[in-house]
């Protein structure tokens, strides 16, 4: 029986997480992706009853805990001490919070902090210790760390923190790791195999063969992992059909990244977006004239004019040059005619969108130097989304820059309601709401008021990022120019289709005659179109039911071949004669 003080030496030290990952890697070096952790279970302290941590107190606690260790001369001893201190945290710190806190710590000696990070990553036996090393390497690491990170990413529980570090050091490697982990081997197996083999010809072929309906984040990761910009640089040397197919694939990936159905448009997380758009614009002339290619070119023009892609650091004149190349192709005689579309309703609707959007984006007159611009954006029906009234200040889209958790509100909410009109009485306006509702992730508000010969936007209300501050500037506009732009946007009908115009006329009629709904004790919520069938007008009404409940009535008005004015007049007559609770659902 050993003496008590000697028993610790007889207890086997647990394997480091890196050693466990190496065993997985060497077990099947050429085989399929392994999603199972090979690491032995690491005993964890039983957490206390505290559900969450206070960010500021956690930051102070970690600074006291790790600060002295970042300057310790012996990284091995410092790593062991870091293990002990991190294991003692109760409750444990989440990786995302840990990453934010460690990234914000002052580093007095980068060399010693980097040495500590590498010891933690390669010898750490605990999750928090390894994640601390990864967070430090995000700022201090180099190319020599990438092979070790790729190996560590074999463990499922470490994929997300490893990907975040790789994104800072070798973005294609981070994208490849995320594709392997999140997307599964089946749809991407050929592309992943080509990337592993380093066969650029095979990568190009597999990339072109991918399905079109990729999720926005997956589209970004595919572009990063395949080094899309580098592939597009090879287009001039390819046969015309192959070059056109690659250009079209690039356009589809960029289009998917601009999806509005996510908390943050993925195009903002794609650093190579400007170069990719430039290469797409240079190759646009290779594309055959098809409905799909019309939609790709118009969508790119929309995004480079008013979308989140504008927020990238383009440099002088580059974005304008890409726009000029795209509009030059769309202006060619053969592109001015939309191809015959047949009888399919979905294709017919998309062709109508192409015609409307061509007239809108190619025929739009812009006042040079205008500080405020409002542009109604309707997305390609191939990937439908809500219609939004994009507000641009000094050429930059305001909602994705200041908020980024949802699109701008519809023109019905911001324009037709008169919400943006400036009066002497200050008015608070909600410009956007989070995809998951305001109660979850907030909304963007601004107070609009007239101040002499100026209009002022101030008093912003917006969610604050964790542990940070967000101070939004006071914006001032020349009142005459502001009023003119709001009036122009309110009167713009170029983007409207018949069912949407019917909805606008119904809403305007009900605002002008409140007695039509008052007699039924019913209120108007909104009027628009059915998301999946834009040819149907949809009116939402509500009323107070027994027990204090509010009930909603949805009334669909289908396309019947008559004019929007006639359909709206008929709807208003019916509301004046019949209780909508009898025919709405």
Please outline what is shown here.
With 585 residues, the protein is of the alpha+beta class.
Polypeptide structure, described:
The structure is a single chain. It is built from 26 helices and 10 strands. The chain has 585 residues and is an alpha+beta fold. The strands form 3 sheets. It has a 4-stranded antiparallel sheet. A 3-stranded antiparallel sheet has the order 1-2-3. A hairpin with a 7-residue loop joins strand 8 (523-529) and strand 9. Mean pLDDT is 87; it is low at 4-11 and 30-51.
Keyphrases for this structure?
585 residues; alpha+beta; 26 helices; 10 strands; 11% strand
Helix content: 40-55%
Low-confidence stretches: 4-11, 30-51
Structural class: alpha+beta
Compute the CA-based radius of gyration: 29 Å
> How is the main sheet built?
4 strands, antiparallel
Which outline best applies? globular
| Average pLDDT over all residues | 87
| Straight-line N-to-C gap | 81 Å
Proportion of residues in β-strands: 5-15%
Q: Output the number of helix runs.
A: 26
Strand order of the largest sheet: 4-5-6-7
Total number of strands: 10
Task: Detail the topology: elements first, then pairings.
Blueprint: H1 7-10, H2 17-27, H3 55-66, H4 75-87, H5 95-103, H6 110-123, H7 127-140, H8 146-152, H9 159-169, H10 171-183, H11 185-197, H12 200-208, H13 216-225, H14 228-232, H15 240-257, H16 273-283, H17 291-306, H18 318-330, H19 345-362, E1 372-377, E2 388-393, E3 396-397, H20 398-402, H21 411-416, E4 427-433, H22 438-441, E5 443-451, E6 454-461, E7 475-478, H23 479-491, H24 498-512, H25 515-518, E8 523-529, E9 537-544, E10 550-557, H26 564-577
Antiparallel strand pairs: 1-2, 2-3, 4-5, 5-6, 6-7, 8-9, 9-10
